[in-house]
Specification:
By secondary structure, the protein is mostly helical. It contains two helices and no strands. Helix 1 runs antiparallel to helix 2. The two termini are about 15 Å apart. The mean pLDDT is about 90.
């Protein structure tokens, strides 16, 4: 299960980064903001999984 969550986190981070980059390239501020939010969501999910791994041991 933890592996699935880690994969989701990475996927969200990459998707958010791509959306942010495309938004900046085309000058679309709302797309840039969406990308930043998605990336942050992925960062938070990854941090949660790392914390769970720390306390698991």
């Amino acid at each position: 299960m933890a592996g699935d969550e880690k994969a989701k986190a990475k996927k969200e981070q990459m998707k958010g980064k791509a959306k942010e980059t495309v938004g900046r390239t085309v000058g679309n501020e709302s797309m840039t903001a969406e990308g930043q939010a998605e990336k942050s969501k992925g960062d938070a999910r990854q941090a949660k999984e790392k914390a769970k791994d720390t306390f698991k041991d």
